[in-house]
Fold this sequence. Notes:
By secondary structure, this protein is α/β, with parallel strands linked by helices. It has helices spanning 15-20, 31-48, 63-72, 86-97, 115-124, 146-156, 204-211, 222-230, 240-256, 258-278, 305-316, 342-363, and strands at residues 4-5, 54-58, 78-83, 101-106, 130-134, 136-137, 142-143, 159-163, 182-186, 197-202, 294-298, 318-319, 321-322, 331-335.
Amino acid sequence: MDLNFRIPGPTPLPPMVLSAMQRPMISHRGSQFKEFYLETLRLAREAHRTEHPVLLWPASGSAGWEASVVNLFAPGDPVLATVCGEFGQRYAEVARIFGLDVRMLEAPWGQAVTPDLLRAALEANPEVKGVFITHNETATAVTNPVAELAAVVRAHGALVLVDAVSGAGALPLEVDAWGLDFVMSGSQKAWMCPPGLMIAAIGPRAMDAVKGSGFPRFYWDFERMLQQSEQGFTPTTPALSTLYGFHAALTIMIDEGMDAVWDRHRRLGEAARRTLTEGGVELFADPAYASNTVTGFLTPEGVSTKAFNARLKEEFGVVAAGGQGPFKETMVRIGHMGWTTIGETEAAAAAAVAVAHELGSAEA
Length: 364
Ligand SMILES: Cc1ncc(COP(=O)(O)O)c(C=O)c1O
């Protein structure tokens, strides 16, 4: 049986991506690579709506947290981490590990970070040099209002750093128009590729900040990577197969048009939420900030995530994810980003409704 693979990343791969990845290796120091790489970076800039560099590292998304800290700050620098779930917390933790002075703005899990909360936090912490924002908090299925939050940060003068791992390539994201200084993501989510690439859009204010940074660095050094990338090359061996896939995925997305891609995800999110709520399943996230790439709900009283997801898979062939942090054992998350259809998304949500009724009434 083909499984309806619905975890919020890695996501299903389009046939074009799979076949592109079967291409043979080429010399990463030759002209064929140069032409291919410059074209890939151009497409990546287009998908991010930026004219500034987008740089790629062989790595998973988490590398983006560390890369931003070691390039843009110095030990002891004050930063503000906005947190509404597990991934925001991890960004803050990485900054703490490197010795930044991390101030926290926390919203309850299921809620978004709002511009008013952020304005107040910046008034209380006027000295912060950077603000961390999670575009889409995958752990709670919440999308933060990044454009509005970025405007508040810009008015204050700090750098805007965005973790867009489960948002980029699916949810509206205008790097230049919104004034975002650093935006990072990973290839395995809405970019429809296997894990393996950390993708970072880096604006001019961030490139300036690199000059004043105070950490030693080698692999994550923005200037080194930028200098090579501008020539169509990489400072270390590139993840060639994943790059072939990324080029194919970007081609599909740019052909469709980013506005159309974002609108398709809006419809996917609405389909998931409609099917669940009409079936009587209450959603975890505040509806005003519900994510269009992932939807989460709590299991019926007394039913573990493990039992719920096992039933979903055995009975309906749906592979869903569990929760994280305090909701590890009680939340179920269904991903609907990248190479997926409304039909697959609705089928997964309908299966979740059936399992919720079956296990919920069994427990009653
Ligand atoms: C919002 C967010 N940030 C960061 C990460 C970490 O990315 P990775 O697992 O690729 O290191 C994830 C992974 O799910 C995520 O959803």
